[in-house]
Amino acid sequence: MTKYTDQGKQDTRSGYGAGMTELGRTNPNVVALCADLVGSLKIETFIEENPERFFQVGIAEANMMGLAAGLTIGGKIPFASSFANFATGRVYDQIRQSIAYSDKNVKICASHAGLTLGEDGATHQILEDIGLMKMLPGMTVINPCDFNQTKAATIAIADHHGPVYLRFGRPKVPNFTPVDQKFEIGKALMLNEGTDVTIIATGHLVWEALLAAESLENQGISAEVINIHTIKPLDEKAILDSVKKTGCVVTAEEHNYLGGLGESISGVLAMHHPAPQEFVATKDTFGESGTPEQLMEKYGLNNKAIEEAVLRVLKRK
Amino acid sequence: MAKNQELQDLVYQVRRDILRMVHKVNSGHPGGSLGCTEFFVALYNEVMDLKEGFDMDGIGEDLFFLSNGHISPVFYSVLARKGYFPVEELNTFRLINSRLQGHPTTHEGLPGVRIASGSLGQGMSVAIGAALAKKLNGDNHLVFSLHGDGELQEGQNWEAIMYAAGNRVDNLIATVDRNGQQIDGPTEKVLPLGDVAEKFKVFGWDVMEIANGNDLDQVVAGLKEAKSRTGKGKPVCIVMTTEMGNGVDFMMHTHAWHGKAPSDEQLAVALAQNPETLGDY
Q: Which parts of the sequence belong to the Transketolase N-terminal domain (chain B) (predicted)?
């Protein structure tokens, strides 16, 4: 199978920060907003180099979303950032009315998504944000898998006109995608070709899917691995082409199975090519305190869980 | 004076438009719309510096944001009478496939509207954002906004009020329509707002009052005074006292007409109190 090398662990939020640094230097219309979490969002360099294009809003996320909507009127491209919980659930109606329904070119950039922020516990973890955001008409939803891809996605969404939800995380995870890989919104990436099962993963679970595929190969099972970084719009063709070949699918995400990537894929399959599917996702539950590794183990979100899901789905073919 | 008569004629006609719009579809919000008729007429025809035509970015002109979107009838009428879209289109208010949705939206591409509003309390943040964009663009024009008084019960306003003062957003004039009424009754009974002007002041705004927001001369003078107070380091707030349902005797001094349309007979009475000056649509 295709070999991917961990170029060294980095956090995806630093990929966002690096993307913002580059945008600060290349796109004068890009402005940044943050709600008292500058250090956590890694945008210090952007602020240092472009102080007039940074807006510190304080602990007031609702106002931040409105300011961002207003800044688009006059041609600015606002990147509004906070933790995923406070950038979605807390301000859903502000996003719905002032951004999505108003067709505003705002980029909502959310760190600490999912369980892996760890010890802070469920108040700061969110496992519902993909669902909340994908249900908004016109909203693009992106969950990149590593540092390089998060940086590339950050840069790419500045050139996409329309509201975007960009979701990333806190922990340091393997950085394995090519440093110069172009980010195409809505275009799935084939990471490993296989014939027995399709594993479709997003975000932190993509690396885990690769580890699972490697282990499965040793057991004589050929797993195709697809990285869906864009959950909406979904690359339906890539999904259908693969599942038509393999006949079954495992979806993997750091999110509730209700409302997540897996559910979107179920919809595509139900419409066009019904096939057995297993979900690697949280099971309609809140998170809790713990280390990222402990949480991913307890809530069934690691390579081992993916491998087990593959063995289950193969029996249903 | 001739100019004043023109504005007064427009006020009468806009009131007729509001009444006929809500009557036709037996829904909509005439009370607050009538209370703010003088404000809209003055703002769009005597105060704001506007370009010909409409583009979303609005660079090189003053901008207006309506936060209390339910008073869309007065907004639509004044926009149409100003030439943003055909006056006949007022006939489509709240009908299927119309650009004139119950609450204003950009979604159907109606010229003159730059943000959706209806879910209350969001407009001040948007207006501040637009004012910040003007500063970044080196555009010396102003941003105006209108807010219901009851709407100030939404917490987001106070985030925005704190932000605008703390960041010296001094190219913004936010007007509060202090009609003292909301759906469930007087604001001071539902959830007391207290001294609105004092609240803005202690948050760091430059606050002025228009004692009678239904007196055209006072509104024009007040808005011009507010313009002269911009650019001095503080956002400007106007607390404008109005009478809900103004210009129709049986709609005044009550909150009953917040979201209720007149019957055929009531419409006839109301129209008789407001002469057709510029031609009904």
A: 11-268
